[in-house]
Amino acid sequence: MSEGDGGEGFGVATAVSLGVGGIVGGGIYAAIGIVVAAAGVLTWFAYSLATVVVLCCAYAYIKLNEATETNGGSVSYIEELTGRSTTAGVVGWTLVVGYVGTMAMYAYAFGMYGQMLVGLEYVWGLPVRQFISVGVVAAFVGLNLLGAGSSAAVERYLVFVQAGIIAAFGIVGLWFGATHYQLRLGFAELGLNPIIAASVGFVSFEGWQLLFYDQEQFENADETLAKGVFVSIPIAAAIYVLVGFVITTLLPEEVIAAQPEPALLYGALAISKWLALAVGIAGLVSTASAINSTMFSEALFAKTLIGDDILPDEMGEAGADAAPKRTVIVIGVLTAAFTALGSLEAVVEFASLAFIVVFGAMSALALTVRDQEAVDVNPVPPLVGVIGSAAFFVMLTWYLYSQLPAVFWLVVVIAAVVFAVEAMYFKRRTLSEGVREVEKRV
């Protein structure tokens, strides 16, 4: 059982709210255009397929959480169940960079929606999108440094704005499409593209596992998290499937492929300018909230990694009461650089690959420990998680290499830099430990 069990805290309703907000929050505004460009009319099918794999990976997380005593998520599971600190370090670094990519994706979408709402692309020769994206990251770095981090109580109510407006858009769009267009399920176009699109948009589902980093805030953590995750993922998936179906009805695929970033805004504009205004404001609120909650959770996650010597001490103080200030600044600078210099496709694909690898690894871990721990693990869901994640990784890599070579090589360079820095850090740490051991003997 986890350490947070038995204490007073938030219940299932808050866990579901945080889960839905974490998943739908910014993902649908940032990534749906990229998914539509790959899947076309079968976008709804791509999201449905991704949901099956994500639910199986979530099952693995819940069982691993029940089998361990610590509350640190993926890295803690590997360390406690296998004792392999280097493998835990690789997963930890991959997640840290994946979260930076995710926040950059949210910041990119925030900047794009801000640019669309103000109606300006350049001011005094400076690109408005990049200025707004970097500005919102800087604002949340400042708020976190002042101690005004994420609040579960506030997030619980914000989710009604975030998910409520986008769900309302889906329902209105379905009615509008049924009365003005020929709604299509698109089964005649079934092929590899929707499966590839499921891997492209995988990052859209990552928000639920942030719940595992701050389990002390929940009462009966194991049970509450299990219910929260298994309820929030289907709710978020239903919104994704509905909006994916509607958006390909309202807009020609060529329009979305040409400008995937503001796809939801254009879709709402096809119905009503007031609906477009509501979707635009909801997009700003949702992506901003997603940046803040992810930054706060990642800083807490990084603090745990610093305490375990997986990240260098220079990144922050492991003994800080809240999110370490230096950690928040480092994360903010990397996110700002990523969102200012990268393309939306690059940050979405990179983040998707990172979470496909980690989710697949956790499913494999649940399979390997099912006979070792006193936890009842059904092998079918983790097996589906492993096979699905492996298939998504291969197809997404092949898709990038064959269709988007510039994005592919950018992702390769980023991964190479991350692993090189990580290898240098672990080698230096090993040498330092050896020197300290010799000094003790002397």
For the structure shown, list the relevant keywords.
mainly alpha, 15 helices, 2 strands, single chain, disordered N terminus, 75% helix, 442 residues, two-stranded antiparallel sheet
Q: How would you summarize this macromolecular structure in one to three sentences?
A:
With 442 residues, this protein is mainly alpha-helical. The protein is built from 15 helices and two strands.
Description of the molecule:
By secondary structure, this protein is an all-alpha fold. Helix content is 75%, strand content 1%. The protein has helices spanning 12-39, 43-67, 74-82, 85-118, 128-145, 152-180, 193-200, 221-250, 253-258, 263-269, 273-307, 325-341, 344-368, 380-403, 405-441, and strands at residues 122-123, 126-127. A two-stranded antiparallel ribbon has the order 1-2. α1 (12-39) packs across α11 (273-307), α2 (43-67) packs across α13 (344-368) and α2 crosses α14. The protein is globular and about 60 Å long. Mean pLDDT is 81; it is low at 1-7.
Gap between N and C termini: 43 Å
Low-pLDDT segments, ≥5 res: 1-7
Could you say which overall geometry the principal axes of the C-alpha atoms support?
Answer: globular
Q: Reading side by side through the largest sheet, how are the strands ordered?
A: 1-2
Question: How many DSSP H or I helices?
Answer: 15
What's the SSE blueprint?
Layout (H helix, E strand, L loop, with lengths): L11 H28 L3 H25 L6 H9 L2 H34 L3 E2 L2 E2 H18 L6 H29 L12 H8 L20 H30 L2 H6 L4 H7 L3 H35 L17 H17 L2 H25 L11 H24 L1 H37 L1
Antiparallel strand pairs: 1-2
Helix pairs in contact: 1-4, 1-6, 1-7, 1-8, 1-11, 2-7, 2-8, 2-13, 2-14, 3-4, 4-5, 4-11, 4-12, 4-13, 4-15, 5-11, 5-12, 6-8, 6-11, 7-14, 10-11, 11-12, 13-14, 13-15, 14-15
